[in-house]
Amino acid sequence: MSDAEYYNKLAQAVIAGEPEEAEELARGALSQGLDALECINKGLTVGMERVGELFSTGEYFLPDLIIGGDAMKAALSILEPALLEDQQREILGRVVLGTVEGDLHEIGKTLVGTMLTANGFEVTDIGIDQPASEFVAAVEEIGATLVGASALLTTTMLQQKKVVEELRAAGFGDKVKVMIGGAPVTQAWADEIGADGYAEDAIAAVGVAKKLIGVE
To answer: What is the pLDDT of residue 57?
Structure first.
């Protein structure tokens, strides 16, 4: 199987929501010497984008979104370790990542976590539908210096503000930076709620994260 065929099959496994197939394809790709990051960018990301398109047009529903995410995570469980294999890199920073309370979207969040991991961050993903208190608890537990709070619905964006407020109320102040993102989120919203940074996609999130912790 060619590289392009592997990428296409990975994308199709995500679109079809087939975790076992996605995991097996990821293993096969690595055994053939394919680059893990290329598999993510040219395979999983393409599949996730298609899932998002189908959801936005009403052809896919929430269960389809969830199983597509499950397939992606299954492949990532194989590909992520390969990103760091044989690389003795210093951890740039510890990040708590989650989707805010009331929001069940995780595809974008998970990709952000993957990209941060690939670039030297230690990421603790607390999952979806998480109240601000859980973000605070996770920061306290792992000693994070950066929080990423995702919201994909206009109705849950206010929960990002709550995350910022509760972190400040817990006494973290400038010690913990907050980065927000999600389809309806903008830089103006980040400014309004006092977030430290905004990223429009997973690639941009890496640059923003590095800037926030003072790493260029």
So the answer is: 87
